[in-house]
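User: My collaborator and I are trying to settle a disagreement about how two of our proteins should look. Neither of us wants to argue from intuition anymore, so we agreed to look at predicted structures for both before our next call. Could you fold the first one, then the second, and keep them clearly separated?

Assistant: That sounds like a sensible way to settle it. I'll keep them separate. The first protein:
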Amino acid sequence: MPIDSIWSYAPELGPALRQDLTGYTVVADDGTIGHVDRQADPHGLCHLVVDTGVWVFGRSLLVPVGAVTGIDTGERKVTLACTRAEVKAAPRFQTDSETRDAAYLTQVGAYYQGLPPHGTETG
């Protein structure tokens, strides 16, 4: 998969891509991570900022949309192709300015791009 595709939704997600995902629950292969706080698309690098609540001590995480394998608008749920531990180990998101920082986004993209494939939904 080319590195830029980690910043784009998979085509099979279809019409759900136009949805506002704010407030949706975010689920990894092995459990809930948190909820979508906001979506961003600086320079075509689409990603979700996920509020983890108390799971990671109130910390937010930045997840490229290429890690999304499913969007269920009925259940308001976003499914990721990774585990909770993999998401937690991603480069730390600290400030909103990082959503526009090319060096930080490159680091995050390379991290998620390097994860082993798993968690894809088939329909």
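The second protein, kept apart from the first:
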Amino acid sequence: MNQQPIQNPETQVPKTPQMNDRDFINDLLATEKYMTDSYSTALNEASHQALYQDLLAIFTETQNMQRELYTVMFQKGWYKLESAEQQKLQQSYQQFKGYTNQFPYGPSTVQ
């Protein structure tokens, strides 16, 4: 089955050796993704509560910026997603629905 991409109409940018708006935003998005990963690791390893709170505030700000950049790229058609096929979703559900007894808080929240 042919999957349809989920994408807005693409905003055209100049195709020159110089960086354009899409290139700059894409670079910023990649940097923000890297930074949120790094802050997540730092949060897991912070042993001092005040440091943890400072890192959490910075992480949240960074994550929000990452989301804003993603939204801009998606709105301009520079970021697309592939739609999932219903059959594949159902197969994954069937495969993993028996795993609810392995959840640390019990199966009550998964149907």
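Some points you might bring to the call about the second protein. The first strand starts at residue 5 and ends at 6. Residues 20-79 form one domain.
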